[in-house]
Design goal:
The chain is an alpha+beta fold. 51% of the residues lie in helices and 19% in strands. 31% of the residues are buried.
Length: 187
Amino acid sequence: MLETFLRKLAKGLDDQRVPYLIIGGQAALIHGRPRLTQDVDVTLGVDTDSLAVILALCRRLTLRPLPKNPRRFVEESRVLPAQDRRSGLRVDLIFSNTPYERQAMARASVVRMAGYPVRFASAEDLILHKLFAGRAIDLEDAKAVILRQGRRLNTAYIRRWLRAFGDVVEDGRDLLAVWRRLVRDTR
C-alpha cells in the first residue's frame, strides 16, 4: 500500500514538474533502519506561490488538505498537511526552494516503488534534515543512517552544510557538535 501511494505521489509531482524529495521517516527506512512511521514528509522545490498547483494536485491524488484555510496556513508555516482519503495516510508537503534544497534534490537517491522511480533524500541530506530538526527520534534516525552507511557517507558535505546551518539555528544548538557526538557514539 505505501509503495503504491509513494508511486502515485511521485508520478503526480513529476507530471506537474514539481521537484521533490521524500524526507523524514520514509527516507530513514531507505538509508537507516526499519521503524514505525505513519506519515510521509515531502519537500517541494517550489515556493508558496505554487500553492494553487499543489492544491490541484491534491485533488487529483485524493489528498484532503487538513487546515480549514490552506492558503493562510501555508503562508504562515510553509507546510500543507494533507491526508490521503483512501488510506488515511498523512502527508506533509513542505514548500522550500532554498539553494540547499535545490542541491539536495539534485543529489536525490532514486528508489523504484511499485515500478516507478521515487526521489528520496540522500543519506547525507537526510542526516542534515534530521540534525536540523533535532528531536530525539530524529537523532536516533541520524545515528542509524551513520551506522548503516558508514564510510560511504560524504562527511565533508555534511560538515560544510552544518557550518552553513549553524548561523540559522534559532535555538542555539551547535549542529557540528551534535554531528561529532553522533559519529563518536556510533564507533
